[in-house]
């Protein structure tokens, strides 16, 4: 029975499963947002309660996938400033473009306010703080007649993504990645404590949105699986057990931390399968663009096309447009930035080396 590391090696450590999984998760999130955008959050609880574990799986799975892959990036580069530079280059250029387009094109076109009043609004100016991870969801006079006036409800994950990178940086500085058993044992203890704490406080309404800490926990378990990739097997029976366990744990809010390792294993198991490449991957990694632009596009479709407000109509139209934006984002922004990453990396390494030389180590 192959380990996770051996399974990855079969595809020269480039399995297509992760690529397909990113796209599928992004599409599923757009589909779910279509329901809340078209019918409101009350409709979710009334008709989709049995599907809650599946919906709660989506975002944490994204985080677990990220944890496994970025752990590999950090431990291969073995240089924290380089790793952080790569994460900034991967996330923020596309995010900046999405924020600008949402504010100055979508918002300016669809606002009910006079354009001068819109451009002078402090709410608009605050909206640009999104590029720093300080999330603002609304724009003046935009989508006020929709079920929600949020322009970019999906960006709630950005601050937690930043927390994840801080967490893995701390793990690296403490050299816990070289002591995976200690790291996993610590994570197990923290999982138990976090679950116990959940029983002693009011966690609020248990809806269809996972908590941010749940997503961070999935990320950490993704990192843990990477550190133990030479020990843990790629086992279909373990996969079935994790699916059942995660489904059970996600029936109740206090069980989400316990569900995190199971979700991480399910995600990594699928990601390491080397599926045959198809047209879905020919356009590049469009999943991030779909995720970034999907919500604003769905809101705009709901407002502009009142005759197409069934959830499946909104989903099909919005996904088609979001795929175009995802392709454009990858082709002209994300890939272009990543093609020039070596320039930024060399600058960061040179700068960090100069900093280190100021404080020479004592022998």
Give the topology.
Elements lengths: L3 H6 L7 H23 L1 H7 L4 H26 L2 H31 L4 H6 L1 H6 L30 H16 L6 H19 L13 H16 L8 H14 L6 H16 L7 H4 L4 H18 L6 H29 L1 H18 L5
Helix pairs in contact: 2-3, 2-4, 2-12, 2-14, 2-15, 4-5, 4-8, 4-10, 4-12, 5-14, 5-15, 5-16, 8-10, 9-10, 10-12, 11-12, 14-15
Main β sheet profile: none
Q: Provide the helix percentage.
A: over 70%
What is the total number of structural domains?
A: 1
Distance between the termini: 47 Å
Q: Output mean pLDDT.
A: 92
Which of globular, elongated, flat, extended, rod-shaped describes the shape? globular
Provide a count of the helices: 16
Structural class: mainly alpha
Q: Per DSSP, what share of the residues sits in E-state strands of 2 or more residues? A: under 5%
Q: Report Rg.
A: 21 Å
Number of strands: 0
> What string, H for helix and E for strand, traces the elements in order?
HHHHHHHHHHHHHHHH
Low-confidence stretches are none
Account of the protein in words:
With 363 residues, the chain is mainly α. The chain has one domain. 70% of the residues lie in helices and 0% in strands. The chain contains 16 helices and no strands. Helix 2 (17-39) packs across helix 12 (256-271). The chain is globular. The N and C termini lie far apart (47 Å).
Overview in brief:
Helices cover 70% and strands 0% of the residues.
């Amino acid at each position: 029975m192959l380990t996770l590391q051996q399974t990855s090696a079969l595809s020269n450590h480039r399995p297509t499963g992760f690529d397909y999984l990113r796209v599928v998760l992004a599409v599923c999130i757009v589909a779910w947002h279509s329901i809340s955008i078209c019918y409101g959050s009350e409709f979710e609880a009334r008709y989709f309660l049995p599907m809650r574990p599946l919906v709660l799986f989506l975002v944490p799975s994204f985080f677990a996938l990220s944890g496994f892959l970025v752990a590999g990036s950090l431990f291969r580069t073995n240089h924290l400033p380089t790793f952080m530079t790569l994460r900034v280059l991967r996330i923020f250029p596309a995010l900046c473009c999405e924020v600008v387009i949402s504010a100055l094109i979508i918002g300016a076109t669809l606002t009910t306010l006079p354009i001068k009043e819109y451009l002078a609004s402090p709410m608009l100016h605050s909206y640009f703080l999104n590029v720093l991870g300080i999330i603002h969801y609304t724009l003046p006079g935009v989508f006020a007649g929709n079920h929600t006036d949020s322009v970019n409800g999906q960006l709630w994950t950005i601050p937690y993504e930043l927390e994840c990178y801080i967490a893995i940086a701390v793990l690296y500085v403490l050299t816990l990645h070289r002591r995976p058993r200690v790291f996993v044992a610590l994570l197990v203890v923290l999982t138990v404590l976090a679950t116990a704490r959940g029983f002693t406080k009011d966690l609020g309404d248990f809806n269809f949105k996972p908590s941010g800490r749940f997503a961070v926990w999935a990320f950490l378990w993704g990192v843990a699986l990477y550190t133990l990739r030479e020990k843990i097997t790629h086992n279909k029976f373990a996969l079935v057990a994790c699916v059942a366990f995660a489904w059970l744990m996600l029936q109740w809010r206090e069980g989400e931390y316990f569900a995190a390792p199971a979700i991480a294993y399910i995600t990594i198991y699928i990601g390491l399968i080397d599926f045959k490449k198809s047209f879905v991957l020919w356009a590049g990694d469009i999943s991030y663009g779909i995720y970034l632009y999907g919500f604003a596009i769905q809101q705009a479709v709901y407002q502009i096309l009142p005759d197409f407000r069934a959830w499946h109509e909104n989903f099909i139209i919005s996904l088609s447009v979001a795929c175009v934006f995802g392709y454009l984002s990858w082709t002209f922004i994300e890939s272009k930035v990543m093609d020039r990453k070596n320039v930024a990396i060399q600058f960061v390494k040179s700068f960090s080396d100069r900093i280190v030389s100021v404080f020479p180590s004592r022998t």
